[in-house]
Amino acid sequence: MLGLARAGATVVVGHQRQTEEAESLRRELKDTGGDHLLVQADVADPAQITELIEATGTHLGGLDIVVNSVGTISHIPYADLPLDAWTQVLATNLTATHLVTQGALPLLGESGSVVNIGSGAGVVGVPLRAHYTAAKTGLIGLTRSLSKELGSRGIRVNLVSPGVIETDQAAGMPEAARTAYTNRIPLGRLGEADEVAAVVLFLASDVSSYVNGATFTVDGGI
Protein backbone atom coordinates (compact mmCIF):
# COMPACT_ATOMS: atom_id res chain seq x y z
CA MET A 1 0.00 0.00 0.00
CA LEU A 2 2.87 2.36 0.71
CA GLY A 3 4.14 1.91 -2.84
CA LEU A 4 0.77 2.96 -4.25
CA ALA A 5 0.49 5.89 -1.85
CA ARG A 6 3.98 7.11 -2.71
CA ALA A 7 3.06 6.89 -6.40
CA GLY A 8 0.16 9.27 -5.79
CA ALA A 9 -2.78 6.97 -5.07
CA THR A 10 -5.18 7.65 -2.21
CA VAL A 11 -5.49 4.35 -0.37
CA VAL A 12 -7.87 2.70 2.06
CA VAL A 13 -6.21 -0.13 3.98
CA GLY A 14 -8.03 -2.83 5.89
CA HIS A 15 -6.13 -4.31 8.81
CA GLN A 16 -7.15 -7.10 11.17
CA ARG A 17 -6.00 -5.77 14.54
CA GLN A 18 -4.91 -2.54 16.16
CA THR A 19 -1.18 -3.21 16.41
CA GLU A 20 2.03 -1.21 16.43
CA GLU A 21 2.54 -2.32 12.81
CA ALA A 22 -0.82 -0.78 11.87
CA GLU A 23 0.07 2.44 13.67
CA SER A 24 3.44 2.52 11.94
CA LEU A 25 1.70 2.15 8.56
CA ARG A 26 -0.70 4.93 9.50
CA ARG A 27 2.23 7.25 10.23
CA GLU A 28 4.05 6.32 7.03
CA LEU A 29 0.92 6.88 4.96
CA LYS A 30 0.41 10.26 6.60
CA ASP A 31 3.94 11.22 5.61
CA THR A 32 3.01 10.74 1.92
CA GLY A 33 0.60 13.65 2.20
CA GLY A 34 -2.46 11.86 0.87
CA ASP A 35 -5.92 11.57 2.41
CA HIS A 36 -5.53 7.91 3.33
CA LEU A 37 -7.70 5.80 5.61
CA LEU A 38 -7.04 2.70 7.73
CA VAL A 39 -10.05 0.58 8.64
CA GLN A 40 -9.92 -2.24 11.18
CA ALA A 41 -11.65 -5.21 9.59
CA ASP A 42 -11.21 -8.97 9.91
CA VAL A 43 -11.78 -10.22 6.37
CA ALA A 44 -12.61 -13.68 7.70
CA ASP A 45 -15.91 -12.08 8.75
CA PRO A 46 -18.18 -11.19 5.78
CA ALA A 47 -19.97 -8.52 7.82
CA GLN A 48 -16.69 -6.71 8.44
CA ILE A 49 -15.86 -6.91 4.73
CA THR A 50 -19.16 -5.16 4.03
CA GLU A 51 -18.23 -2.44 6.53
CA LEU A 52 -14.81 -2.07 4.89
CA ILE A 53 -16.37 -1.65 1.44
CA GLU A 54 -18.89 0.87 2.77
CA ALA A 55 -16.15 2.87 4.49
CA THR A 56 -14.16 2.86 1.25
CA GLY A 57 -17.11 4.13 -0.76
CA THR A 58 -17.76 6.89 1.75
CA HIS A 59 -14.13 7.97 1.83
CA LEU A 60 -13.24 7.70 -1.86
CA GLY A 61 -16.53 7.67 -3.73
CA GLY A 62 -15.15 5.15 -6.21
CA LEU A 63 -12.19 2.88 -6.86
CA ASP A 64 -9.56 2.47 -9.57
CA ILE A 65 -7.52 -0.27 -7.87
CA VAL A 66 -8.24 -3.21 -5.57
CA VAL A 67 -5.32 -5.10 -4.03
CA ASN A 68 -6.22 -8.31 -2.22
CA SER A 69 -3.24 -8.95 0.03
CA VAL A 70 -4.29 -11.08 2.97
CA GLY A 71 -3.31 -14.45 4.29
CA THR A 72 -3.04 -16.82 7.19
CA ILE A 73 -1.17 -20.09 7.42
CA SER A 74 -0.75 -23.06 9.72
CA HIS A 75 1.33 -26.20 9.44
CA ILE A 76 -0.67 -29.38 10.05
CA PRO A 77 -0.22 -32.91 8.67
CA TYR A 78 -3.05 -33.59 6.24
CA ALA A 79 -4.21 -36.71 8.10
CA ASP A 80 -4.72 -34.56 11.20
CA LEU A 81 -6.12 -31.45 9.49
CA PRO A 82 -9.36 -30.48 11.29
CA LEU A 83 -12.27 -28.97 9.42
CA ASP A 84 -12.14 -25.71 11.38
CA ALA A 85 -8.49 -25.14 10.37
CA TRP A 86 -9.34 -25.90 6.73
CA THR A 87 -12.33 -23.54 6.84
CA GLN A 88 -10.41 -20.71 8.51
CA VAL A 89 -7.55 -20.77 6.02
CA LEU A 90 -9.87 -21.01 3.00
CA ALA A 91 -12.05 -18.19 4.35
CA THR A 92 -9.12 -15.81 4.83
CA ASN A 93 -6.97 -16.73 1.84
CA LEU A 94 -9.64 -17.28 -0.82
CA THR A 95 -13.19 -16.40 0.20
CA ALA A 96 -12.17 -12.97 1.48
CA THR A 97 -10.67 -12.10 -1.91
CA HIS A 98 -13.92 -13.16 -3.58
CA LEU A 99 -16.06 -11.08 -1.20
CA VAL A 100 -13.86 -7.98 -1.36
CA THR A 101 -13.68 -8.07 -5.16
CA GLN A 102 -17.38 -8.72 -5.57
CA GLY A 103 -18.25 -5.98 -3.09
CA ALA A 104 -15.92 -3.52 -4.82
CA LEU A 105 -17.45 -3.96 -8.28
CA PRO A 106 -19.97 -1.10 -7.91
CA LEU A 107 -17.12 1.20 -6.85
CA LEU A 108 -14.93 0.13 -9.77
CA GLY A 109 -17.63 0.86 -12.33
CA GLU A 110 -16.49 0.28 -15.90
CA SER A 111 -12.73 0.28 -15.43
CA GLY A 112 -10.08 -0.62 -12.92
CA SER A 113 -7.38 -3.03 -11.88
CA VAL A 114 -7.69 -5.88 -9.39
CA VAL A 115 -4.42 -7.36 -8.14
CA ASN A 116 -4.57 -10.56 -6.10
CA ILE A 117 -1.59 -11.65 -4.02
CA GLY A 118 -1.05 -15.39 -4.16
CA SER A 119 1.90 -17.58 -3.24
CA GLY A 120 4.39 -19.86 -4.90
CA ALA A 121 2.84 -22.60 -2.76
CA GLY A 122 -0.21 -22.44 -4.99
CA VAL A 123 1.88 -23.62 -7.94
CA VAL A 124 4.25 -26.17 -6.42
CA GLY A 125 2.40 -27.42 -3.32
CA VAL A 126 3.88 -27.54 0.15
CA PRO A 127 3.73 -30.41 2.68
CA LEU A 128 1.75 -29.71 5.88
CA ARG A 129 -0.04 -26.82 4.14
CA ALA A 130 -2.66 -28.56 2.01
CA HIS A 131 -5.33 -26.06 3.06
CA TYR A 132 -3.12 -23.05 2.38
CA THR A 133 -1.97 -24.46 -0.96
CA ALA A 134 -5.55 -25.20 -2.00
CA ALA A 135 -6.57 -21.62 -1.21
CA LYS A 136 -3.67 -20.06 -3.10
CA THR A 137 -4.23 -22.36 -6.08
CA GLY A 138 -7.87 -21.29 -5.98
CA LEU A 139 -6.73 -17.68 -6.36
CA ILE A 140 -5.14 -18.59 -9.69
CA GLY A 141 -8.43 -19.96 -10.98
CA LEU A 142 -10.43 -17.07 -9.57
CA THR A 143 -8.07 -14.56 -11.21
CA ARG A 144 -8.28 -16.22 -14.61
CA SER A 145 -12.05 -16.56 -14.51
CA LEU A 146 -12.63 -12.96 -13.42
CA SER A 147 -10.18 -11.63 -16.01
CA LYS A 148 -12.40 -13.13 -18.71
CA GLU A 149 -15.71 -12.17 -17.13
CA LEU A 150 -14.81 -8.63 -16.08
CA GLY A 151 -12.51 -7.77 -18.96
CA SER A 152 -15.46 -6.64 -21.09
CA ARG A 153 -16.14 -4.03 -18.42
CA GLY A 154 -12.61 -2.73 -18.65
CA ILE A 155 -11.61 -4.31 -15.35
CA ARG A 156 -8.29 -6.14 -15.44
CA VAL A 157 -7.58 -8.92 -12.92
CA ASN A 158 -4.06 -10.23 -12.36
CA LEU A 159 -2.13 -12.22 -9.78
CA VAL A 160 1.23 -11.66 -8.10
CA SER A 161 2.81 -14.81 -6.71
CA PRO A 162 5.68 -14.02 -4.32
CA GLY A 163 8.31 -16.51 -3.33
CA VAL A 164 10.19 -16.33 -0.04
CA ILE A 165 10.17 -12.68 1.02
CA GLU A 166 11.85 -10.90 3.93
CA THR A 167 8.89 -10.44 6.28
CA ASP A 168 8.38 -10.59 10.04
CA GLN A 169 7.54 -14.27 9.61
CA ALA A 170 10.71 -14.89 7.61
CA ALA A 171 12.73 -13.14 10.30
CA GLY A 172 11.84 -15.96 12.66
CA MET A 173 12.86 -18.66 10.19
CA PRO A 174 15.48 -21.13 11.47
CA GLU A 175 18.87 -20.43 9.99
CA ALA A 176 19.00 -23.88 8.39
CA ALA A 177 15.74 -23.21 6.56
CA ARG A 178 16.93 -19.78 5.41
CA THR A 179 20.12 -21.32 4.07
CA ALA A 180 18.19 -24.05 2.29
CA TYR A 181 15.95 -21.50 0.57
CA THR A 182 18.85 -19.24 -0.32
CA ASN A 183 20.73 -22.14 -1.90
CA ARG A 184 17.69 -22.94 -4.09
CA ILE A 185 17.10 -19.36 -5.25
CA PRO A 186 19.25 -18.52 -8.30
CA LEU A 187 19.62 -14.90 -7.17
CA GLY A 188 21.04 -16.20 -3.90
CA ARG A 189 18.85 -14.24 -1.49
CA LEU A 190 15.31 -13.79 -0.21
CA GLY A 191 13.17 -11.14 -1.83
CA GLU A 192 12.26 -7.74 -0.43
CA ALA A 193 8.72 -6.48 0.12
CA ASP A 194 9.45 -3.47 -2.10
CA GLU A 195 10.23 -5.81 -4.98
CA VAL A 196 6.77 -7.34 -4.72
CA ALA A 197 5.20 -3.89 -4.33
CA ALA A 198 6.86 -2.74 -7.56
CA VAL A 199 5.08 -5.47 -9.54
CA VAL A 200 1.77 -4.59 -7.86
CA LEU A 201 2.30 -0.95 -8.83
CA PHE A 202 2.98 -1.98 -12.43
CA LEU A 203 -0.25 -4.00 -12.59
CA ALA A 204 -2.24 -1.24 -10.92
CA SER A 205 -1.06 1.41 -13.37
CA ASP A 206 -1.95 2.22 -16.96
CA VAL A 207 1.48 0.98 -18.01
CA SER A 208 0.00 -2.54 -17.86
CA SER A 209 -3.24 -1.60 -19.65
CA TYR A 210 -3.16 -4.73 -21.87
CA VAL A 211 -2.13 -7.17 -19.15
CA ASN A 212 -5.10 -9.24 -17.97
CA GLY A 213 -5.40 -12.69 -16.42
CA ALA A 214 -1.65 -13.01 -15.89
CA THR A 215 0.34 -14.47 -13.01
CA PHE A 216 3.60 -12.73 -12.15
CA THR A 217 5.98 -14.77 -10.04
CA VAL A 218 8.32 -12.70 -7.88
CA ASP A 219 10.52 -15.43 -6.48
CA GLY A 220 14.10 -14.93 -7.63
CA GLY A 221 13.75 -17.86 -10.02
CA ILE A 222 13.19 -20.62 -7.45
Shape: globular
**What is the share of helical residues?**
40-55%
Oligomer: single chain
Run of helices and strands: HEHEHEHEHHEHHHE
Percent of residues in beta strands: 5-15%
Low-confidence stretches: none
Reported for the largest beta sheet, the result is: 4 strands, parallel
Radius of gyration: 17 Å
Please give the alpha-carbon distance between the first and last residues.
26 Å
Main-sheet strand order equals 3-4-5-6
CATH homology-level superfamily: NAD(P)-binding Rossmann-like Domain
CATH C-level class is Alpha Beta
CATH topology-level name: Rossmann fold
Number of strands: 6
- Structural class, please? alpha/beta
Going by CATH, the architecture would be 3-Layer(aba) Sandwich
- How confident overall, as mean pLDDT? 93
Q: Give the domain tally.
A: 1
Number of helices: 9
What are the key terms here?
Sc_DH/Rdtase_CS; 222 residues; globular; oxidoreductase; SDR_fam; 9 helices; 14% strand; NAD(P)-bd_dom_sf; four-stranded parallel beta sheet; Rossmann fold
